[in-house]
Amino acid sequence: MRRLSNEPLVQTKVQEFINSNGKQHSKDRGVVLEAMKSHGHLYQLAKNFKDDKEILMTALKSYLRIHSNQPLQYASDRLKNDREIVLLALLKDEYALQYASDRLKNDDEIGLMLSKKSISALRNTTPRIQIKYTREIVFENVTVFFLSYYTDAEKEKYAKSIKKAISLIKASPIPNFKKTLNYLIQVGKSDVLLRYAGMNDFDALYDGETNNIYVNTDAPDTFRAMAVVHEFAHKFHYKHIKDSVYNERFVEFFKYATMPKTECILANLPKLGSPLSNILSRGTFSWVLKTAYEDYYLKSIKGNEYFYYNKKGEMKKFTKQELIKYMQCPTGYSATNEFEWFAEMCTLITLNQVKPSQKLTVSRFIEMVREESR
Question: Which parts of 235-323 are beta strand (E)?
Fold first, then answer.
């Protein structure tokens, strides 16, 4: 007597498994295995079999890239580190490597295979593999493209500096600075940069028209992270500050911040009617007017002495030397225009190289960036 097939019953259970989002028959391996033969994109429902190699391979074989749920992303760490599994996943979807183990992302065989299919797919490999099989490396949302020929060791060295700069910008106390971390950095030698950037007498350069940053490997000391951070600061100024490089607040602040100390003191000596808070309020600057009821205002100057009165008629007296001690005149900025000064400020703050004499100016600068950036 021939045994009757139980195929209709299995298919019924498969449908129940799918319709219930994996709640029914979730521990029935036969049902789950059968479901994966034609529904690989639903592998995430096989929660009790994430470490079952046969079920995962079955799901990968039936998976179609038109579906977004790549089975590999739901597998156990052990299977994500299985070369046979990952190679099978990549045959259907070259972007599946993003879900593989770090070990396999650094695998030369896999890197070579992907380089023949799609350069963009290499973005999920490690920098070492990208350097070996392509002319571009991706860090975060920044693509580093090598315009000239370099050895793997040279590319790795340059990429390391750029990666360090990106890490510094991500951790920078400058509000919204990390928004600049996108688009393209083009690295090349002088002869090639002349064709691409139209000039080559620079260490690094931000091009506001193309939004590219160029880095010249023939220039000395180019690949300090500082140089790259500095050019990202120009991009930040150009793209993410209200009114761009023409922001009036930063133009005026530049004039103040770069003023020689003697000139600053003369310009900021109090005038009749000015409030005492202009001089004594820490963290503010000479043009910030405090008009609180209890404030004192300069009523008279007699020789070297300044007399302030409040609305109650109470008086405070200071000598010129005492007032100068309270003045907040910044020192130590070498930039000759507001564009370079803005980039210098961002770079010094990001690299934590602010001098004690610059701290008050830095505090105000960060506050202005927070108010003016977008």
Answer: 297-302, 305-309, 315-319
